């Protein structure tokens, strides 16, 4: 058996500009909200190809339940170690509403301008550039790690990209080191990056460290060459790709993201976490990945049974967006022992392994119980954003208190004028119509009657389900976790309890 743990899905599909297949959405599963605990990271990948077929734009991101965005993917040259962006139109050129076509200067547009605007509007939201992914890794682009000169080139290009585009850090997605030499080279690269980032921080006089994260496998065959103690000293987070435990490479249908057990596939998230801890990883640096997609098996009688085909999917063959699940006609099954879920259509004999809100809630509770760092999601374009079934909001609800570390806005040596002048808001610069970060002024007041003692709604405040706020002289109660969604707005996250 070939174990492909975590992550053939983390790549740009060949048909990324095609609109996704859509299927009628079936039943939803009630969420479980657990007791909240300490501040956690809630991290989501944003893909630059998602603006095409999936039509998921940076402006579609709900920043409220997020602490970090990982912008995927940049590439790296195996010949030099130099990092490059992969889509100039998406990254730098596309104009979004509010962008001017005739403002003076050398200005950044595209998704990366939108990321910077998000950072300005939400000062606790950090954005890192993610380098690699499945395709570039499998094509050998990380082979440079065994060469010290190329590693130094990588470090230097990382610093330049961070300064030019306003990133808060770097995420490495190397799938996977396949030899002792590559394992050591990768560890040395991460050590060099941390040293360079700390120097960069000191030179700029920044109070907040720059982020360094790595997407790592949950499968033993793919993490065996990682030098965990050395890497752990340098990393901010280990982003554990806790999915893709089952798929088209198996001869039977199975769970793709089970927390426990995994008797048939020999992989589980709990076992992987325990391995990293046993090797010297810090619990408070481990982030558990959660898939925002499902893997399909056709013509099967159930888990552990043979299957024949994987179907068209909505993202790529055999892979369905979480936003399209469960499919119409399918029933949802949740196993609270191994903490996994799937849908099954007995007529079509189709099984789709994916995480429901109930399962995501239990995984977030596991993060709390084991003092892990938080959760990570691949990828944001396929969540049920703005609904009570959003997995990103579900885990944020369980955590309650999210990481409040400030992002960086000061990039005085950027090649882009509007990054240097913070979209026209930096001292000595003139704001333009296209460059002002959105703000919302609290409306209403504590009032009297049923509104007595209730604070006015604020776009910068995160509200948990059941919390109240005053807006427009009415009392409103949040239905679920929300931030920045106006009471009475189209998101429908607030209940109007009547006039004050």
UniProtKB/TrEMBL annotation:
<keyword id="KW-0326">Glycosidase</keyword>
<protein>
    <submittedName>
        <fullName>Glycoside hydrolase family 18 protein</fullName>
    </submittedName>
</protein>
<dbReference type="InterPro" id="IPR017853">
    <property type="entry name" value="GH"/>
</dbReference>
<dbReference type="InterPro" id="IPR003610">
    <property type="entry name" value="CBM5/12"/>
</dbReference>
<feature type="region of interest" description="Disordered">
    <location>
        <begin position="417"/>
        <end position="451"/>
    </location>
</feature>
<keyword id="KW-0146">Chitin degradation</keyword>
<dbReference type="GO" id="GO:0006032">
    <property type="term" value="P:chitin catabolic process"/>
</dbReference>
<feature type="domain" description="GH18">
    <location>
        <begin position="40"/>
        <end position="402"/>
    </location>
</feature>
<dbReference type="InterPro" id="IPR036573">
    <property type="entry name" value="CBM_sf_5/12"/>
</dbReference>
<feature type="compositionally biased region" description="Low complexity">
    <location>
        <begin position="424"/>
        <end position="443"/>
    </location>
</feature>
<dbReference type="GO" id="GO:0030246">
    <property type="term" value="F:carbohydrate binding"/>
</dbReference>
<dbReference type="Pfam" id="PF00704">
    <property type="entry name" value="Glyco_hydro_18"/>
</dbReference>
<dbReference type="InterPro" id="IPR029070">
    <property type="entry name" value="Chitinase_insertion_sf"/>
</dbReference>
<keyword id="KW-0119">Carbohydrate metabolism</keyword>
<feature type="compositionally biased region" description="Polar residues">
    <location>
        <begin position="1"/>
        <end position="14"/>
    </location>
</feature>
<dbReference type="GO" id="GO:0008061">
    <property type="term" value="F:chitin binding"/>
</dbReference>
<dbReference type="InterPro" id="IPR001223">
    <property type="entry name" value="Glyco_hydro18_cat"/>
</dbReference>
<dbReference type="GO" id="GO:0008843">
    <property type="term" value="F:endochitinase activity"/>
</dbReference>
<dbReference type="InterPro" id="IPR001579">
    <property type="entry name" value="Glyco_hydro_18_chit_AS"/>
</dbReference>
<comment type="similarity">
    <text>Belongs to the glycosyl hydrolase 18 family.</text>
</comment>
<dbReference type="InterPro" id="IPR050314">
    <property type="entry name" value="Glycosyl_Hydrlase_18"/>
</dbReference>
<feature type="region of interest" description="Disordered">
    <location>
        <begin position="1"/>
        <end position="25"/>
    </location>
</feature>
<dbReference type="GO" id="GO:0000272">
    <property type="term" value="P:polysaccharide catabolic process"/>
</dbReference>
<dbReference type="InterPro" id="IPR011583">
    <property type="entry name" value="Chitinase_II/V-like_cat"/>
</dbReference>
<dbReference type="GO" id="GO:0005576">
    <property type="term" value="C:extracellular region"/>
</dbReference>
<keyword id="KW-0624">Polysaccharide degradation</keyword>
<keyword id="KW-0378">Hydrolase</keyword>
<dbReference type="Pfam" id="PF02839">
    <property type="entry name" value="CBM_5_12"/>
</dbReference>
């Amino acid at each position: 058996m070939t174990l492909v743990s975590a992550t053939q899905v983390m790549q740009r599909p060949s048909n990324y500009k095609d609109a996704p297949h859509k299927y009628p959405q079936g039943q939803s599963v009630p969420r479980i909200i657990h007791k909240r605990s300490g501040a956690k990271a809630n991290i989501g990948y944003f893909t630059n190809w998602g603006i095409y077929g999936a039509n998921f734009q940076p402006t579609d991101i709900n920043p409220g339940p997020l602490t970090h965005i990982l912008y995927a993917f940049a590439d790296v040259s195996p010949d030099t170690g130099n990092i490059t962006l992969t889509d100039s139109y998406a990254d730098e050129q596309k104009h979004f509403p509010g962008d001017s076509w005739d403002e003076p200067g050398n200005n950044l547009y595209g998704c990366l301008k939108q990321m910077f605007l998000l950072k300005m509007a939400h000062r606790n939201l950090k954005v890192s550039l993610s380098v690699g992914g499945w395709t570039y890794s499998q094509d050998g682009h990380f082979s440079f790690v065994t060469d010290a000169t190329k590693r130094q080139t990588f470090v230097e290009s990382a610093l330049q990209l961070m300064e030019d585009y306003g990133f808060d850090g770097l995420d490495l997605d190397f799938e996977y080191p396949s030899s002792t030499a590559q394992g050591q080279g990768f560890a040395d690269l991460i050590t060099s990056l941390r040293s360079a980032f700390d120097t960069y921080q000191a030179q700029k006089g920044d109070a907040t460290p720059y982020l360094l994260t790595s997407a790592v496998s949950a499968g033993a065959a793919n993490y065996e060459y990682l030098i965990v103690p050395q890497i752990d000293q340098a990393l901010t987070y280990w982003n554990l790709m806790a999915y893709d435990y089952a798929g088209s490479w198996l001869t039977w249908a199975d769970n793709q993201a089970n927390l426990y057990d995994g008797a048939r596939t020999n992989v589980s998230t709990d076992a992987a976490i325990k391995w990293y801890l046993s090797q010297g990883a810090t619990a408070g640096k481990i982030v558990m990945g959660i898939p925002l997609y499902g893997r399909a098996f056709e013509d099967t009688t159930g888990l552990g049974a043979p299957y024949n085909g994987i179907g068209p999917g909505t993202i790529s063959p055999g892979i369905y967006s979480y936003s399209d699940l469960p499919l119409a006609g399918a029933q949802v099954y949740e196993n609270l022992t191994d903490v996994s879920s799937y849908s099954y259509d007995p007529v079509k004999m189709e099984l789709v392994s994916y995480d429901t809100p109930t399962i995501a809630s239990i995984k977030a509770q596991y993060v709390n119980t084991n003092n892990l760092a938080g959760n990570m999601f691949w990828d944001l374009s396929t969540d049920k954003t703005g609904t009570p079934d959003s997995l990103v909001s579900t885990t944020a609800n369980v955590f309650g208190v999210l990481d409040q570390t400030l992002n960086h806005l000061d990039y005085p040596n950027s090649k882009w004028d509007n990054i240097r002048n913070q979209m026209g808001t930096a001292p000595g610069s003139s704001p333009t119509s296209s460059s002002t970060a959105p703000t919302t002024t609290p409306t209403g007041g504590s009032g009297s009657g049923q509104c007595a003692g209730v604070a006015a709604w604020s776009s910068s405040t995160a509200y948990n389900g059941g919390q109240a706020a005053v807006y427009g002289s009415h009392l409103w109660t949040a239905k679920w976790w929300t931030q920045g969604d106006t009471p009475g707005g189209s998101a429908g996250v607030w209940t109007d309890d009547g006039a004050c």
